[in-house]
């Protein structure tokens, strides 16, 4: 409605201007033209005043009083053509603001444009088009070439190439085959595939991201409120210069000539537009930033904390070492462990199977003890695989520090298989670049054991380690960060990270494969499974704030120079009115530079 109102005001001013020109120069009725412009100017000045009061009451910054004063002053001294130009530029500036904000937000809104609307349900060999909201978990769906994947699911037939750029920011096509998962919002390639729905539409990845995009509105950030504080001294300065020019010259026209070049645009438009442009730039790099406040805080971050599993590490345990007793073959130990665990759903069992040989011996009498391990009979031997006290109930095993499964056969200890959560390949360079950016305090806050956490932290270059922390304890660690080391950002991916993401000054979720709860709790979400995007987010936020400050200061300096020149009576009111919009245009275009920030990725 506001956008429509701004455009209507602009067209009203244009229409009255055209009629006034005809009256004054076509029909030689200058008085009628002056009356028409005066009535219109008074009406719009009143509407601007009402808008200013409403926005101030809502806690936001309203139209600067200088704009209203400039219109009234030019009308009062009979400079109605200058008043018409000021009105044209003010309403045009509002329309330009709407256009600029829309242009800056175009990348975010493109996600909404690609929202899946329908799905093709397969029932008894027939295909039926249904609304995406009607898809249930377990439904068999057909995805045709070029269509948008309607919900998260698993391919059951066929193979294809998907475009996931709207979800991850990665333009490279991704090949998918039977058994692999696909995300809603991905665009199918040239082949039809069949899939089974793993989530309803409301719970699918794309809808989660859409909810985040809807939250990414241009809310006034703290920096905008700082810009608001510039308004009072700037307004006082403008009135002092205008009043002094009037008093010294004795000519009230000087007062109007000064005020028409005192544009409020740098204070009320430049910073918000720069922030929206920065948010748009972040989205191009696969980073959803929910508010302008997040950009400002992220630009000032002095401490960054990380969860370990799934954030610093890949979150997938892999076999690390095979430690055997004397005269026990490593390959045989791994084979026995994998064969015994092959029917288990435990995460370590799955990791064992990935490292196991293709041919495993036949097992019988399989029995799994929850929280203990699995036992089975192999070639007549009773093999036990699991925790140390399960493999050898007599407590004779000396435990290793790493995550491990212990193996015994006929109550004889054979050895153990250790596992490690492999580091993300980009983790080391991420920490190094954050240090280079001046973020000297890097923390790991993990629920894992102290020895493991310290080993990981040392490998990647993290400064502090807080291990064996429950979710509540993670919050306390964040709260204890000293004021001189704030703001603090927290990076995590799991459900247990959600409270920490809310507590931190800036919560950043690894949303590509992380929990929905973490993404919804965070201030920013990294859509691509790349930890280094945290570095890119900091760089974009700092560059955005730099552009925002520049746009404000450039506008203020230009306005001040023009006011001083106008105070000597060398800038007629009608020329000053034109120069005012030049200032507006310069500051808005300067602010939009934040949308094309060059960041090395």
TL;DR?
Its EC number is 7.2.2.21. The chain is of the alpha+beta class.
Task: Describe, in plain words, how this protein is organized in 3D.
The protein is of the alpha+beta class and 601 residues long. The protein has 4 domains: 6-107 and 218-275 and 543-595, no CATH class; 117-215, Distorted Sandwich (Calcium-transporting ATPase, cytoplasmic transduction domain A); 297-312 and 424-527, HAD superfamily/HAD-like (Rossmann fold), CATH 3.40.50; 315-422, Calcium-transporting ATPase, cytoplasmic domain N (3-Layer(aba) Sandwich). It is built from 22 helices and 22 strands. Helix 1 (2-26) runs antiparallel to helix 4, helix 3 (65-76) runs antiparallel to helix 9 (252-259) and helix 9 (252-259) packs parallel to helix 22. The two termini are 39 Å apart. Mean pLDDT is 79; it is low at 216-224.
């Amino acid at each position: 409605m506001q956008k429509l109102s701004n455009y209507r005001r602009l067209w009203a001013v244009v229409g009255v201007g055209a009629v006034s020109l005809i009256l004054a120069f076509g029909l030689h009725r200058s008085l009628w033209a002056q009356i028409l412009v005066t009535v219109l100017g008074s009406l719009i000045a009143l509407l601007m005043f009402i808008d200013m009061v409403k926005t101030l009451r809502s806690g936001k910054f309203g139209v600067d009083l200088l704009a209203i004063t400039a219109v009234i002053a030019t009308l009062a001294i009979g400079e109605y053509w200058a008043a018409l130009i000021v009105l044209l530029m003010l309403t045009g500036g509002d329309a330009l603001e709407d256009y600029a904000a829309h242009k800056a937000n175009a990348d975010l809104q493109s996600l909404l444009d690609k929202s899946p609307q329908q799905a093709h349900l397969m029932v008894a060999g027939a295909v039926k088009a249904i609304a995406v909201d009607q898809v249930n978990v377990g439904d068999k769906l057909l995805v045709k070439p070029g269509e948008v994947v309607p919900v998260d699911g698993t391919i059951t037939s066929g193979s294809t190439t998907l475009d996931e750029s709207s979800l991850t920011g990665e333009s490279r096509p991704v090949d998918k085959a039977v058994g692999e998962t696909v995300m809603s919002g991905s665009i199918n390639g040239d082949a039809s595939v069949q899939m089974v729905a793993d989530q309803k539409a409301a719970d699918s990845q794309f809808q989660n991201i859409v909810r985040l995009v809807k939250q990414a509105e241009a809310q006034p950030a703290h920096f905008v409120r700082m810009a608001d504080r510039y308004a009072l001294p700037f307004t006082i300065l403008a009135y002092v210069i205008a009043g002094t020019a009037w008093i010294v010259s004795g000519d009230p026209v000087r007062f109007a000539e000064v005020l028409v070049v005192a544009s409020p645009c740098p204070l009320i438009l430049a910073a918000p537009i720069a922030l929206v442009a920065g948010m748009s730039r972040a989205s191009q790099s696969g980073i959803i930033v929910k508010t302008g406040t997040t950009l400002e805080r992220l630009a000032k971050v002095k401490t960054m904390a990380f969860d370990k599993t799934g954030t610093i590490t890949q979150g997938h345990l892999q076999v690390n070492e095979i430690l055997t007793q004397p005269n026990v073959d490593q390959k045989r130990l791994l084979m026995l462990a994998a064969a015994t665990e092959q029917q288990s759903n435990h995460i370590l069992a799955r990791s064992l199977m990935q490292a196991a040989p293709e041919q495993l011996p036949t097992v019988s009498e399989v029995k799994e003890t929850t929280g203990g391990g699995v036992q089975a009979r192999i070639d007549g031997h009773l093999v036990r695989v699991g925790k140390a006290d399960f493999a050898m109930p007599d407590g004779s095993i000396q435990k290793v520090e790493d995550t491990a499964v212990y193996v015994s056969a006929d109550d004889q200890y054979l050895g153990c298989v250790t596992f490690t959560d492999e580091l993300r390949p980009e983790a080391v360079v991420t920490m190094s670049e954050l240090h280079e950016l001046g973020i000297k305090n890097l923390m790991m806050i993990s629920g894992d054991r102290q020895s493991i956490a310290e080993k990981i932290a040392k490998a990647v270059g993290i400064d502090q380690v807080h291990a064996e922390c429950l979710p509540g304890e993670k919050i306390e660690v964040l709260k204890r960060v000293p004021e001189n080391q704030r703001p603090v950002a927290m990076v995590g991916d799991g459900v247990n990270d959600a409270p920490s993401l809310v507590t931190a000054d800036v919560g950043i979720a690894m949303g590509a494969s992380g929990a929905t709860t973490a993404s919804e709790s965070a201030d920013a979400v990294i859509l691509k499974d790349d930890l280094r995007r945290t570095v890119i987010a900091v760089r974009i936020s700092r560059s955005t704030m730099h552009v925002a400050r520049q746009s404000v200061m450039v506008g203020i300096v230009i306005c001040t120079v023009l006011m001083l020149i106008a105070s000597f009576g060398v800038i007629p009111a009608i020329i000053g009115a034109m120069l005012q919009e030049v200032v507006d245009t310069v500051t808005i275009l300067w602010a939009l530079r934040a949308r094309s920030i060059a960041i090395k990725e």
